[in-house]
Specification:
The chain contains 8 helices and 7 strands. With about 210 residues, the chain is an alpha/beta fold.
């Protein structure tokens, strides 16, 4: 069996005893963080909380600062189509995501939304935002991998050490055939060096406490 961990992110969170861990992706096209990662789609609404959304915003803000963005502009996706359409299509956007954004802005973070997921990535790509906080795995990963599959890097935010990895899986079908594109691996190494070389004041662990869980 695969054990109790659905991915490396969850395993590392356990090994590092990290209280807040977020899967995020850096690429030349988009910078994205995931409020939930390896969770079945039908379970996302059950594990999404105000605290989880806030933690993702908070850790992504600090990652952007570490990467040299002085005042990061973060866009937060809604969970439902049209970001809930004012409660007409689900209540999670108003009940969970909006309060998390308010907590973040109260901490001085430039976070806006929730925005419909089908348009917000285009706005970020055009330069309106420095990063996007997505609510679930495919919402954030489809645009990243569509635009920058061989250049994107997985970052694990919230650990006491820098961790980066390629944005794709093990690709056993290509192993040993000298056919795999090493672009994402090279980018992961480059990003790890950048993160390790960041000024200590930026690379320090976030001091903000998590929002109360809902």
């Amino acid at each position: 069996g695969r054990g109790k961990y659905p991915g490396h992110t969850e395993l590392l969170a356990s090994r590092f005893r990290a209280k807040r861990v977020v899967m995020a992706f850096e690429s030349p096209a988009l910078r994205v963080a995931l409020a939930t990662a390896h969770v079945p789609l039908m379970d996302v609404r059950n594990v999404l909380t105000i605290g989880r959304v806030f933690d993702t915003i908070d850790l992504m803000h600090d990652a952007c600062v570490t990467l040299g963005i002085e005042s990061p502009r973060l866009a937060v996706c809604g969970l439902n189509p049209h970001a809930g359409e004012g409660g007409l299509i689900g209540d999670e956007d108003g009940r969970l995501i909006e309060p998390a954004i308010k907590v973040a802005t109260g901490h001085g973070i430039d976070a806006r939304g929730p925005f419909p997921g089908d348009t917000v990535f285009g706005r970020a790509l055009a330069g309106e935002f420095d990063a996007v906080v997505a609510m679930y795995h495919d919402q954030g990963l489809i645009p990243v991998k569509l635009l920058a599959f061989d250049q994107a890097v997985n970052m694990t935010l919230g650990l006491s050490s820098v961790r980066t990895s390629p944005d794709h899986g093990t690709a056993f079908d290509l192993a040993g055939r000298n056919r795999a594109n090493p672009g994402s691996m090279a980018a992961a190494l480059d990003l790890a060096v950048r993160l390790c070389s960041a000024p200590a004041s930026r690379a320090a662990a976030p001091k903000r406490a998590s929002a109360d869980r809902a």
